[in-house]
Amino acid sequence: MIRLNSEEQGLLADLEVLLAEAEPSAESLPTVLGALRDALKGERAVAYGVDVGPERYHASYSHFVGFPLPAATVHETLEGSMSSVSDPWGWFDPARPEPAQRNRALHFRSLAETEARQTMPLHDLPAVEVGRRLGLSEGELETVRERALTRSGAVFRQLGVENMAWLRTLVCEGPALLGWVGIGRAEPFTEREQRLLQALTPALQRRLTMETRLRESGLMSTALEVAMEALGRAAWVVSSSGRVVHANSAGRVRLERGEPELMELLKRGAQGIPCSGPLTLTPLRTSGLPAHYLAIDSGTASSAAARVHALSARWSLTARESEVLTHIVQGETNKTIAGRLGCAERTVEVHVTHLLSKAQVESRSALIARFFQTS
Fold first, then answer.
1. pTM, whole model, 2 decimals?
2. Whole-angstrom distance, CA of residue 240 vs CA of residue 60
3. What are the chain's domains?
4. What SS3 class is residue 56?
5. pLDDT digit string, tens, across residues 306-338
């Protein structure tokens, strides 16, 4: 096993510090990418994310260093190359990279050499080992090879990098791809350089995880949070990989119960797999952020009346308090409730105060959570 020498260890430490301390912004990742290119003696550097949408792949973000073309042109070329979900391009599936490729630095021959020699892409490895490193069987290798040369080849030529070898890592969080990070140059990379990128991959993972969380936080505006609470039923914002980004009060209660069926429905729905049952999903789109979905349990409302009846007896509610509770869990304001019941808004406020006391909670959101949590 090749160990990093003191100079390489120093480079690694410097890059890890840069990744950890660079201010999170659209401008900082290119700086990090440039430093990585210099450390690995590369000519080009690329980092991009993939938005796995219901119909097409899209580049959720992209950064390029060392290209003579404008960054916008490079991005458009990359974006234009992304094909339908049913036919992933290149040597990996962006929707779910093979475990063998996740967070692993791999050294690829140039496109020109691969075509000319009709050989496999990874440097100095037999086909069986290439398949193992890429998570592919021998039978799949040739099919994937032809597809990769066709699809990726066109993009490489458009960008003028068909004669470059590439050292790249698929930075993943579990099965989800956070980013493709690669360095290209005319000369093949050394085993030491490959090991340096491998050693740096955990720091890249931490960085790209943080960037992903920051993009996701921009999705959750106060307005959306309020709207989700006002639904009066369990709701979640889910990423395309099925990870719950945010939940309203009723949704959090469901998650805390640890319902495996619910998690499977959320994951399948976010991946575009038709699901039976009361769950409805609506796409949420925000610039720079992969597709997310608003998932709502439409069955919650249908069971609310029975739950109100049961809790009215348990909490010793009056008939009017039960009516107010019904409207509260549907997300209605005191003013709206007053209009529906034909009374003053101040009267509704009194009923709400009594409800909070009888349910032994201190806020409206806690009342809704208690309502859905109580068996």
1. 0.63
2. 12
3. 6-217 (3.30.450.40), 222-297 (3.30.450.20), 300-373 (1.10.10.10)
4. strand
5. 778 888 889 999 999 999 998 887 767 888 899
